[in-house]
What we know:
By secondary structure, this protein is an alpha/beta fold. The chain has helices at 6-23, 51-58, 76-82, 95-106, 130-138, 187-212, and strands spanning 25-29, 40-44, 63-68, 86-88, 110-113, 142-148, 167-172.
Amino acid sequence: MNAPSARSAEVGRRIGVPLMYGLWKPRVLGAWKVPVTGPVILAVNHSHNIDGPMVMGVAPRPTHFLIKKEVFVGPLDPFLRGIGQLKVDRESTDRTAITRALGVLGNGGVLGIFPEGTRGEGDFASLRAGLAYFAVRSGAPIVPVAVLGSSGRHGRLMKALPPLRSRVDVVFGDPFEAGDGSGRRTRKALDEATVRIQQRLTAHLENARRLTGR
Length: 214
C-alpha cells in the first residue's frame, strides 16, 4: 500500500494553521531545528486532544501522524485520510500502518508519533517500542516536540482541550539518532534505543518547561 503524499499532508497543514491560531494562541519555539529535507520523526508528548492538530498546523513541514483507528469514524475517516494521516490499530501489530509509515519516511517525509501511545500526563514517562522501531529501521532522526497547554478550567470547549484563546507552547528540540550506529534491529537493540529515546525526550520536556515557565 502506497504512503500518503506530502501534498495531502500540506492540505492538512493549511487547514490547521488558521484553525489553531483562531481557537488558541500558539507560541512556537525551535521550529528551525526540524531538518528542512529528508525523513524526520516528530516525537510528541500527548496530554490534550489538540496536540496532533496543533503540531500539524505549526510544524514547518507537512506531517503524517499515526492516529488510533478509533478516531477514524464518520466524516472524520475520509477527512483524515484525505489530509495524509495514518490509521493504526494499537491493539495489534498493524502491518498496514507500519508499511505506510515506513513509506512516508522512505519518501523523505515527516512522520508524527505519540510515543506514549495514548493521551495521558504527557510526560514521556512510559514509551512504547514503536518509535524506536521506526527510527532504527528508517535511520530517520527524531525531533522531540513538547506541547504545553494551559491547565485553566474556564473557557474550555471540552475537558480534554485547553481553554479557548489560551496560550499553547510548542517547543521543538534538537534532532538526534536513536540507534547506536551498528544498524542492529534486534529486540535488545530496540530496547536500548527506547531507553536512549526516553532520556532525550524527558530532557527536552524539562528544558521546554524551563523555557516556557510551564
